[in-house]
Amino acid sequence: MRKGIVRLLFTIFGAAIGYYYLPPLWPTIGVQYNSILMVIVDIFIGGVIFWLLSLATLRWVMQVVQRVEDYLTQKSPLYLFFGALLTIIGLVLAILISIPLWRTHIPVVNNIIPILLMIIFSYFGFRIGTTRLDDWKNILSPKRGTKEEPGKSGDVIKQQDANYHHYKILDTNILIDGRIYDLVKTGFLEGTLLVPNFVLYELQYIADSGESIKRVRGRRGLDILNKLREEKIVPVEMYDGDFEDIPEVDSKLIALAKKVDGVIVTNDWNLNKVIQFQNVEVLNINNLAKSLRPRVIPGERMQVTVVKKGTERQQGVAYLDDGTMVVVEDGRYYMNEQIEVEVTSALQTDAGRMIFARPLHSAKGIDGEKNDHHAKSDGKEKSKK
Question: How far apart are CA 135 and CA 106, in angstroms?
Answer without folding.
Answer: 41
